[in-house]
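Re: that backbone. C-alpha cells:
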C-alpha cells in the first residue's frame, strides 16, 4: 500500500513538473511573440494576449515548488522569468508603495488620453447627458493636454458642446483630425484640447482610415515637446461578437453551439495583427523623426508586450510601467487583462510624478489614462 501511495505521489510530482516545463515554454513563446512580426508567423500575435497568464502561472509554480521537497524545481520558472523580465512590469504594475502625485504643477504637464467612444454617439438609445458627464470628469482632473480618441464633430468641423465647455475650462487650443465618418454629417477622429500653445499641426496617413495626429506643444520656458495621437486598427469585432464572448465567459457550453466560431474569431484577430504591424512600424518611423522629445497618446488596440506595443514604444517610456498598479485595465469588456490605451513619453525632458487610469464603464468602453509630469531641469 505504501508503495502504491509513493508511486502516485511520484507520478503526480513528475506530471506537475512536465506541466511546469510547458508553462515555461509558453512564457518563452510570449517573449518571442513580442518581437516577431505577425506576417512572419501566423497566429503568433494572438500569443501576446496570454502573456499575463503565462507570467502568473510561472510565479505560482515557484511558490508551489518552494513548499515541497523538490525546491530546486522552482529554479526553472525563476530562470524563465529572469530571461523574460522585460515582460513583467508592462503587464503587472508593481508600484503599490511608490509616490503617485496627480496634482498638476504650474510649470508641469498633465496629460489625459481617453477613447471617448463617440461621446455616447454609438449607444442605442443615445444618452444625451453622456458628454456633459464626461466633460465634468475632465474638469475634475484639470489636464493641460486632453487627447480624445473617437471624438466626433459635425460637418462644419465643430462640436459646439465640447468647444464651449473646454473654452470655459481654460483650454486655449483645439485641433481635430478625422479618419472616419458616420454618413455625411458626422466625422469621427482624434482631438486635442490644450492649455499650452500648439503649432506645426499635421495629419499623417499610416493606413486607409488610420491617421496619426502630430503637433508641437510649447511648454513653460519655451521648451517644446512633439505630441502624437493615434488610434490603430481594431479587431473589428461586432457588438454581437463581444456579447457572445461575454456569454462564453460564464457558460462555456455556448461555444459548443458554434463549433466554427473559434476558428473565425482567430482569423479575425490574426488579420487585425497583420494590419497593425505595418501601422506601428510607420508610426514609429514618424516619431523617430521628431526634433523634440516626444509624447505618444495611443489606443493601440493591443496589449503590452505585443509586437505592436514593442515596435511603437521604441525607446519611449510607458507611464504605466513607472507608476501603474496591477493589470491597469483600460478596456472595459472581454478580459481584465486588456490594457490597450497608453501614454508614452521621453524622459529626457519629462519626469513622471503620477499615473492613473479611472474606471468609467458607465461613460465609455475605454477608461481614461492620465499622466502627470514635471519638467526635467536642464
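Recovered sequence:
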Amino acid at each position: 500500500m505504501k508503495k502504491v501511495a509513493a508511486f502516485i505521489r511520484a507520478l503526480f510530482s513528475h506530471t506537475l513538473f512536465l506541466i511546469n516545463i510547458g508553462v515555461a515554454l509558453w512564457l518563452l513563446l510570449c517573449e518571442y511573440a513580442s518581437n516577431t512580426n505577425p506576417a512572419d508567423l501566423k497566429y503568433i500575435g494572438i500569443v501576446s494576449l496570454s502573456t499575463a497568464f503565462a507570467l502568473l502561472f510561472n510565479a505560482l509554480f515557484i511558490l508551489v515548488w518552494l513548499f515541497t521537497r523538490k525546491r530546486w524545481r522552482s529554479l526553472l520558472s525563476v530562470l524563465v522569468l529572469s530571461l523574460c523580465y522585460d515582460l513583467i512590469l508592462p503587464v503587472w504594475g508593481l508600484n503599490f508603495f511608490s509616490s503617485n502625485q496627480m496634482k498638476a504643477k504650474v510649470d508641469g504637464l498633465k496629460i489625459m488620453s481617453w477613447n471617448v467612444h463617440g461621446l455616447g454617439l454609438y449607444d442605442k438609445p443615445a444618452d444625451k447627458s453622456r458628454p456633459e458627464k464626461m466633460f465634468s470628469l475632465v474638469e475634475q482632473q484639470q489636464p493641460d493636454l486632453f487627447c480624445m480618441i473617437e471624438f466626433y464633430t459635425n460637418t462644419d468641423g465643430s462640436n459646439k458642446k465640447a468647444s464651449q465647455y473646454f473654452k470655459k475650462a481654460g483650454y486655449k487650443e483645439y485641433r481635430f483630425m478625422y479618419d472616419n465618418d458616420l454618413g455625411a454629417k458626422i466625422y469621427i477622429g482624434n482631438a486635442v484640447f490644450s492649455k499650452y500653445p500648439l503649432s506645426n499641426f499635421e495629419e499623417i496617413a499610416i493606413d486607409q482610415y488610420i491617421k496619426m495626429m502630430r503637433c508641437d506643444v510649447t511648454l513653460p520656458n519655451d521648451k517644446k515637446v512633439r505630441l502624437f495621437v493615434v488610434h490603430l486598427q481594431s479587431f473589428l469585432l461586432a457588438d454581437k461578437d463581444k456579447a457572445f464572448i461575454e456569454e462564453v465567459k460564464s457558460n462555456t457550453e455556448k461555444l459548443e453551439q458554434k463549433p466554427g466560431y473559434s476558428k473565425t474569431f482567430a482569423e479575425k484577430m490574426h488579420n487585425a495583427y497583420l494590419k497593425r504591424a505595418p501601422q506601428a512600424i510607420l508610426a514609429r518611423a514618424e516619431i523617430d523623426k521628431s526634433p523634440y522629445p516626444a509624447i505618444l497618446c495611443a489606443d493601440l488596440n493591443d496589449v503590452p508586450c505585443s509586437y505592436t506595443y514593442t515596435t511603437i514604444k521604441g525607446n519611449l517610456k510607458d507611464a504605466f510601467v513607472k507608476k501603474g498598479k496591477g493589470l491597469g485595465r483600460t478596456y472595459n469588456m472581454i478580459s481584465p487583462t486588456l490594457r490597450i490605451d497608453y501614454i508614452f513619453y521621453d524622459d529626457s525632458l519629462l519626469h513622471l510624478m503620477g499615473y492613473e487610469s479611472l474606471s468609467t464603464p458607465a461613460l465609455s468602453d475605454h477608461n481614461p489614462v492620465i499622466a502627470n509630469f514635471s519638467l526635467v531641469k536642464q
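The first strand starts at residue 93 and ends at 94. The chain has a mean pLDDT of 89.
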